Amino acid sequence: MSASVLSTEEYGVLRITIDRQARMNAIDLATMTELCDLVTAAATTPSVRVIVLTGAGAAFCTGADLAAASAAGGNEASPEVVMDRANDLIRAIVDSPLPVIAQVNGPAAGVGTSIALAADLIYAAEDAYLLLPFTSIGLMPDGGATAVVAASMGRARAAEFALLGARLPATEAATAGLITRAIPSEELGAHVETVAAKLAAGPRRALQLTKAALNAATLAGLDAALAREKTGQSELLTSADFLEGMTAMLTRRAPRFDGAVHPITDPA
Asked: Which of 112, 76, 109 is nearest to 237 (CA)?
């Protein structure tokens, strides 16, 4: 276990915490790999009966650590390797025979949103928000978000969320059916503990089959979505628009994408 990921097990509950607080829990390739390995190993650990995913400090996970990738000169890994690792993590969460709870203690953005939404139960602090900021930097949503978001809140609202890249407050996400419930921040930890304890004391096989049946009914297109996202994102990660979007983000200015003819304004 590295300094970027904390893992504790107690009374059948495996709590996995992303701890990169200096980066608002933005994750690099090594962190994604460790998260995937922990979730995968839990599936065959008899003492573990439920998984809780959360973030340390003020954020849940603010996506891929683009600053670290930029500092590495873009040589951390090929786009295909990065996408494969992200897809492996999402599949590990969805395919786990164990119930997975996302405790969204703060902002979830980019692949952080995808990680949260891959969980079976998603409880968020009322002052948290979800964000798919991909198009603002010349990318497309990944981590299965194009399938999960549409399956949860419908095509029209999913399109607004993904295409415009605006923050979605946790309370609105709950109303839209994207997350399970928004909880007052001071009550979030206790609520998740109560739910996790109930699941840990439940019938393991019945919970496994119930989860599998729900996912089969609602996420039948997940594999195809992951494949489309990998193909599209691998292309976009090498594009001029992404270079411009990332440069603009890191230098805190508005991006100027190729061919754009209108100034950027927020929709009413």
From this structure: 76
Q: What angle do CA 113, 115, 116 make, to 5 degrees?
A: 65
23 touches 65 (CB < 8 A)? yes
pLDDT tens track for 224-245:
999 999 999 999 999 999 999 9
DSSP conformational letter for 24: T
Give backbone dihedrals phi and psi of 23, rounded to 5 degrees, phi first. Answer: -110, 20
* Residue labelled with tokens 């065959």: 44
Query: Mind listing the pLDDT tens digit for each residue in 80-118?
Result: 999 999 999 999 999 999 999 999 999 999 999 999 999
Residue 159 gets the label, from left (phi > 0), alpha (psi -120 to 50) or beta, of alpha
Q: H or E element: which one contains 181?
A: strand 181-183
Tokens for 24, please give them: 């608002």
User: pLDDT (tens digit, 9 = 90+) per residue, 51-79?
Assistant: 999 999 999 999 999 766 555 555 567 88
Q: Give CA–CA dist 189/40, Å, rounded.
A: 24
Model-level pTM? 0.94
Average pLDDT across the chain, whole number: 93
Distance CA 3, CA 222 (A): 31
Q: Are strands 100-104 and 181-183 parallel, antiparallel or unpaired?
A: unpaired
φ, ψ (nearest 5 deg) of residue 84: -60, -40
pLDDT at 158: 96
Query: Residue 265's Cα: distance from chain center in Å?
Result: 27
**CA 241/CA 246 separation, integer angstroms:** 9
The top-level CATH class assigned to 1-186+202-267 is: alpha beta
The helix-helix angle for 155-164 and 145-153 (nearest 10°) equals 130
